[in-house]
User: Fold NAD(P)-dependent dehydrogenase, short-chain alcohol dehydrogenase family from Actinokineospora diospyrosa.
Amino acid sequence: MGEHGPLAGNTALVTGGSRGIGAATARHLGALGADVAITYNTAGERAAAVVADLTALGVRSVAVRAPATERGAVEAAVLEAAEALGGLDVLVNNAGIARYGTVGEVTDEDLDAIIDVNIRAVVTGTRAAIGVLRDGGRVITIGSNLAERVTSPGLAVYAMSKSALLGFTRGLARDLGPRRITANLVQPGSTDTDMNPAGNPTAAEQLSTSALGYYGNAADIAATVGHLAGPAGAHITGAVLTVDGGQNT
Assistant:
């Protein structure tokens, strides 16, 4: 669709947009017509490939390096992206990390990293975006179905970081409602990405709770984000959309 899609004339920023769900989301928003900025940490070549794909669609795109563990980096990236694109209509808080281990095994370094990337960067990046988001805009955060159901040991701290996004999203919806800016949370389940490939040794265990019995793919999550970002999502706010093949059913 490119420049003639339902998001034509809109601008979006996808954090962690160089690979996986973030890259799929950036490409999907571009296909819907949005100009799209992405952030990345170390995957510069992958980020450049996403930008090239978006440019080929006929939309503007830029990649900004923003290590989410560095204080101030995400906020600076939000403002740089908004300046490059001429404002911001959609923020997708996608960047995240996973550190596994029982509570007794998780180190202080693990805990700090998870809180900094999965919680603090979401809050501070959103705070920066509030000043540049146009009225009627969207804030969409990518969480995890583990926020609401933990079926295996070793996931407590990661699940904690994702459950924090539930309260944040619901409160944010109230804060931004007067400006008709929506805030929603998308919770993937087992999704075939670098972080959790469908062929990994725990795949069978993960799918044992799935109603559909197979891994999702990044395009499934991107499509949900696209719906929330578009005209059809205008009256959806404070919502949690779990896209997990029925794992949490």
Observations:
- The mean pLDDT is 96.
- The beta strands are 11-14, 35-40, 61-65, 88-93, 133-142, 182-188, 191-192, 216-217, 240-243.
- The chain has seven helices and nine strands.
